[in-house]
Amino acid sequence: MFRNYLLTAWKVFMRRKLFTAINLLCIVLTLVVLMVITALLQNTFYPTGVEGKSDRFVQMVMVQSSHTDKGAMRRGTLGYKLIKQYLKPLKNAELVSITSSVPSTVSVYQDSQVSSLDMRLTDAEYWKILDFTVRQGRVINADDVEQGRMVAVLNESTARKLFPGQPYLGQKFSANGQIFTVIGVVQDEMHMNAYADIWTPISAQPSSDYKNNLFGQFGALMMASTPEQLPALRREIVEVAKTVQYDDPTAFNVTKFWGDSKLQLFSRMLLSSEEEDGSVGKLVAGIVVLMLLFMALPALNLINLNVGRIMERSGEIGVRKAFGATSRQLVAQLVLENVLLCLIGGAIGLVLAAGVLWWLENSGLIPYLRVHLNLAVFGYGLLITLVFGVLSGVIPAWKMSRLDPVHALKGAA
Amino acid sequence: MLRHLLKLIWKRKSRNMMLSLEILLAFLVVFAIAAFGLRYWQLYQLPTGHAWRNQWSVAIRPAQDIANDAATYDSLKRALLDLPEVESVAFSKFGTYEMSRSTEEYTLPDGSQELIIDGISVSDDYFKTMEMTPASGHWFSKADDGGDVTPVVINRRLADKFFPGKEAVGQLYITQTRGKSTPERFRVAAVVEQFRSHGEFMDPVYFMLPRYVPGVGKEAAYAITLKLKPGTPRAFEARLNAKLKQVRSDWNYLITTQSDARASMLRMQMIPLIILGVIAAFLLVMVAFGLFGVLWQNTTQRIPEIGLRRALGASANHIYQQIVAEQLLLSTGAMLVALVLLVQLPLTGVFGDSLNWKVFATATLLSASVIYLLSLLCSLYPGWRAARLSPTQALHYE
Question: I want to staple B195 with a disulfide (CB 3.0 to 4.6 A). Which of A18, A324, B49, B333 is the partner?
């Protein structure tokens, strides 16, 4: 039976090649856009590569302080002391890293050129949590941080830009009025925690005042030893927030912070959420609704095209009805036909989406972007295709199944 | 003729409804992007109220909060004016063409007219540095030292709101404290026509520039604005940085020219428009294909009907006109429904001044022409194909 459906579908597609082509084009265009978006989202929130251990660590870039008696509230980045005192001793965390919440822009002055680059302060744990691909030399270690050595790790693009045609290691450059020596070169990365052009030890600053502040410009990465331990770690973080003591208890006395996965962090920032899970449900629902809205116009388009084709097939439908096919069977057949076309479109779309992503990576629109197409993206692509196929196939199929066999046989629908 | 066409459309209402719905959605998409683009165009025409060509900004990035100390700012200013390229130096809480924004609530001295106003505190030389001109009144200066009322420069929009029909200069207003503490008082020193700190694409808001005096008040200034001699090369940045480091070596300075900051600000504000434009283009291409396909199918099905008309003496041109006119009529109907929905937006004012009547009308005109053009293009070939058939062929068509 199934084979018969497939054969019929194939015959129908081939009979009207132009329409099949138009149908397919609409499907492919829609699916390419949706797949590119999905791949970018997947790459951002569930990355592989440098932040591949994302299922084991959580990040924190923000602490919320308020006072029980006053209305004042402060939401801002964390200070070194806060992380050192409250987050470093976490029992469920294997490693805790302190790093700039956002890389700060610095100007590097060379003889005739000024380069504006993003610099990130890191400790040694940072390099253990994230898996950078080291091209040359070494990364920053605990000794560098302890001694406050003026050393720096560059990414490939920056090294090429600053020292074209020269060996990179051992070069010196000046940033923020300090002289740094290049000790390593790593691969370019564009991810939430990994992004930077220059990495330097956290202690390589003109003064060590940063160590005494509860509020500062830092964020924390906290890694559990296994993904299963992550929920326990997240609970522990919420508990620890209750024990924070301020230098001036009259200004603030209540603290809230959360260890978030990337998706949670994003939705917490976007929705200013105070929920433990960062209101991820709302965000995901929002994304799904937006995608369905985007699909509405192409789906309507496909419905219009498909409805037209039913009329041509009224003879066939009349015969099938006369021989006792139920409406449900006919609906199943037409939806199947549509889904089949969508699957073909999906396959072409996937190839084109890979091409678009490749173009996006090379165009430099988003610096250092590298999207890894993995099985999950493929799965989401398939899901989107099926949803789209059913969405655009049901109405024409339902209309078709309602045809009166007598009229249908006469071809006068 | 029109009645006849309408009757024909009504006969095929269920099919035409789906088609109309598609055109309606396409119209909404085109309208959205047209309105967005037109509003940007409108904003771009407005003056920003400040210059950017010879202005440079220095953002101070200290390791921790800096104290508002008059001596430090004085030595910064003197060091900078030592450089022959520097014509004028001013301090402010933050700079123009930055994402920063600071708002607070204010009222008139009698507590009426609550307003949320954007503000940047600036030093006396700011206006000279930014090449601003007052519409009325005079810039604040040293003469205002020691008063308990903060002199402030406000924009025309705020002046018209707070003091309608009155001369705004010399008027007072205060911070909204709801009686919990003594409010800070402000006296209008001058009015400027326009001030938009985020630049060309910023919506005009109520704006005030209160006086900042180094060493007075708790908050320090984190931005230095410089006016340089025209034609100063970019390489000056290195010397400027060295000079600043001589004053405070433990601070980091982020130096940008206002023309660079402006360019990146404009680029960033254009991103949503570009993304929307790409998506809209995708959708329109799809709608064009779909419309073309549907019209082709429709005319193919109606060939016997067309044959009959030809046999009864209609010329090929008449058939052609009928197909195109039917399609345009259908598009008109769909767009009228869409307009009934869309007109609610400016009527209820959900988008405020962003979707004013001028933008609405122009966007309607623009998007209607796009949809008409699309309908016309998509019906040309099917129409021509139907008109080409001879009556005998058409009547026998199976």
Answer: B49
The CA–CA distances, whole Å, from A355 to A184, A349, A352, A359, B136 equal 33, 10, 5, 6, 59
Please give the pLDDT value at position A87: 94
Percent with pLDDT over 70 in chain A: 98
Q: Are strands A172-175 and A178-186 parallel, antiparallel or unpaired?
A: antiparallel
Q: Does B26 touch chain A (CB under 8 A)?
A: yes
| Helices B13-45 + A280-312 axis angle, to 10 | 130
Pairing of strands A198-201, A114-122: parallel
**CA angle A158–A161–A163, rounded 5-degree value:** 100
Residues in Cβ contact with A277 at an 8 Å cutoff, skipping those fewer than 6 apart: A264
Whether chain A has a CB inside 8 Å of the CB on B18: the answer is yes
What is the ipTM, given to two decimal places?
Answer: 0.74
Q: How distant is the Cα of B247 from the closest Cα of chain A, in angstroms?
A: 13
Give the chain B residue whose CA is nearest to the CA of A107.
B254
A33, A105, A297 member nearest B22 (Cβ) = A297
CB contact under 8 A, A33 and B22: no
pTM for this predicted structure: 0.81
Averaged over B161-165, what is the pLDDT? 91
Determine the Cα–Cα distance for residues A358 and A369; give it in Å rounded to an integer. 10
Nearest by CB to A22, which of B283, B289, B298? Answer: B289
- For B89-139, write each residue's pLDDT tens digit: 999 988 899 888 888 889 999 888 888 899 999 999 999 999 999 999 999
Stated as kind and residue range, the H or E segment containing A104 is strand A104-109
